[in-house]
Amino acid sequence: MASPPLIELRALGKDYVTEAGLWPALHSVTLSVMAGDYLAIMGPSGSGKSTLMNLLGCLDRPSRGDYLLDGQPVAALSGDALANLRNRAVGFVFQGFNLLPRISLRENVALPLLYARVRREERLARATALLEQVGLAPYADSLPNRISGGQQQRVAIARALINRPRLLLADEPTGNLDSATSGEIMQIFAALNGEGITVVLVTHEPDIAAHARRLVRFRDGRVVEDRPLGSEPC
Amino acid sequence: MLMAMFEEAWRAMRANRLRTFLTMLGMVIGVGAVVLMMAIGQGAQIAVGQSINSMGSNLFIVLSGFHTSSGARSGTGTGSSLTVDDGAAIADLPGVALVAPVAPGVAQVVWGPNNWNASILGTNPDYLAIRGWPLAAGAPFGDSDMRSATRVALIGQTTAENLFGDLDPVGKTIRVKQSPFLIVGVLSPKGQSLDGRDQDDVLIVPLTTAQRALFGAPQPEVVRTLMVQAESEELMAQLEREITALLRQRHHLREDADNDFFLRNLTAVADTAAEATRILSLLLGAIASVSLLVGGIGIMNIMLVSVTERTREIGIRRALGARQSDVLLQFLLEALIIAVVGCLIGLVLGIGGALAVGAAVGIPVVVGLGPILASLLVAAGTGIFFGYYPARKAAQLDPIEALRYQ
């Protein structure tokens, strides 16, 4: 493939300042993710996977090494430029859904467009269209607490997609859901990946990770396993 | 973008209606108090100014000294030192515009079945000009009336009302101490004097007539008071010295003798009164401003609580692409809206309260555009000043920490 990887990590490290001194959460991670890949990251808690997700999502800066997103080094960017990347290049899906409780589902989905300086009519129109895609158009004007967890996660996915990012980061997206609902969510991820969106998923459930095409296992801030998964997701 | 931010702020405020209202209340009370106090203070200043102007401008009052009898001194005006000739001599000083000798008294005034106890002023035709007191109807008396001591009178509004009711007094003849007096003119209303007397309860007659027919004065030339009007305010200090010197010379006072008269510079008195009212209204404003400050601190307090409460929301917004400046603006706008909306409500209540107080107490109340604009500016400034710290705190939250916050 001629195009550069979407994500390229070179000897990436991250230290946290604790009372006991510097604590390395990530040691030296070198990893490439090609555009269109579907990556599952597993590992026990404290293994550094959340730290990696924060770095990938441009919420945090690395202490060492390089992170190239779409060929562009992220470390040198200003706070506003990072915010811009989070807004346009990356979509976040969280374990706790993280919808704003006091605004309607439509406005929740439209929120990233506010920071992309998109006009109100267009914001709401695009949000409505996406809610239709995830099958929640009838609830567009409801507040988040009126719908189930699985439905909330679908709204959160719609929100992550609204700026048409190339990369979708999902941190334990099924952690708060029962297995049937989890299956629905995983089908959405598979479909999105089929459309060419790169998906990076953190999970500790093997049957969730099995949906991905590639598995990366972390332990103590290091990659200890990196292998392709055989079949297409079932 | 800004519109959307306003919407966001509005929504956040509506979500916490009671808290927003209570925070606003601080501003409402602060601004309301400032506007109310300013309106009343300015009203008082104007009331004092009116009383002062009703005296006439650039005035001296010369009062005759006291009469000493066996070591007991009577009050001012009991002596018999001032004469009409003193007044004529003062009138000849350069810089003196007009002089009116005044002999006051009180008498029962009768017209038909009605009678009334009124102040009587015996004076000359210049008195009205000195006091700046035009006639509402009829004509003034003239110098010929002075010479021949004609029994004519100008009647004040209060006296006219009590004697004649709605009838036109001009041309009617009243009786004062058994003498018939022809009413030739009606004075325009003058209102209260500085000490609260009703200046309209008066009958003004020629000095000569008053001394001979009404007061039965043993020395008709002697008067209680001389009113002296200077040509301009700048001349007053110099004239004060010259009049004193002139009267001392005319009264043959020795170098070491006390004055047998009192010279009052009414402009100075007026200035003092105006200054006192001004300080009072400043003081009221200052006290009211304290409540505005308290309101501002209330905003800061609530905004800090709000930032802590919405830490997670801030984290989510940052993750979705909000810049630090977006978060800062959002919280700053919230503080600003609370302050400005509170200010507007406070203005309405303050102005309403001022008008109500003015109507109830009967003082003039002035609601100027100046204080309204000033309080809007101060409120906006308060919102920004006290909102900035919480907003900056929100903007500087670490997005990862904020997302993790429960």
Question: Could you characterize the architecture of this molecule?
Answer:
The complex is a heterodimer of chains A (234) and B (406). Chain A is of the alpha/beta class and 234 residues long. Chain A has a single domain (34-62, 77-228), classed as Rossmann fold, CATH 3.40.50. Chain A is 32% helix and 28% strand. Chain A has seven helices and ten strands. In chain A, a hairpin with a 2-residue loop joins strand 9 and strand 10. The longest helix of chain A is centred in the last third of the chain and has 16 residues, at 179-194. Chain B is α+β, with helices and mostly antiparallel strands and 406 residues long. Chain B folds into two domains: 2-51 and 272-404, no CATH class; 98-228, no CATH class. In chain B, the strands form two sheets. Chain B has a six-stranded mixed β-barrel. In chain B, a hairpin with a 2-residue loop joins strand 4 and strand 5. Chain B is elongated, with a radius of gyration of 33 Å. Chain A binds chain B through residues 54, 57, 59-60, 79-80, 83-84, 86-88, 92, 94, 98, 100, 102-103, 111-112, 114-117, 120, 159, 163, and chain B through 1, 3-4, 8, 11-12, 15, 312-313, 316-326, 399-400, 403.
Question: Major sheet of chain B, described briefly?
Answer: 6 strands, mixed, barrel
Helix content of chain A: 25-40%
Q: How many structural domains in the coordinates of chain B?
A: 2
Based on secondary structure, the structural category of chain B is alpha+beta
- One letter per element, helices H and strands E, the order of chain A comes to EEEHEEHEHHHEHEHEE
How much beta of chain A, percentage-wise?
Answer: 25-35%
CATH superfamily of chain A: P-loop containing nucleotide triphosphate hydrolases
- The rounded distance between the terminal residues' Cα atoms of chain B is 29 Å
Low-confidence stretches of chain B: none
Q: Note the total helix count of chain A.
A: 7
Number of strands of chain A: 10
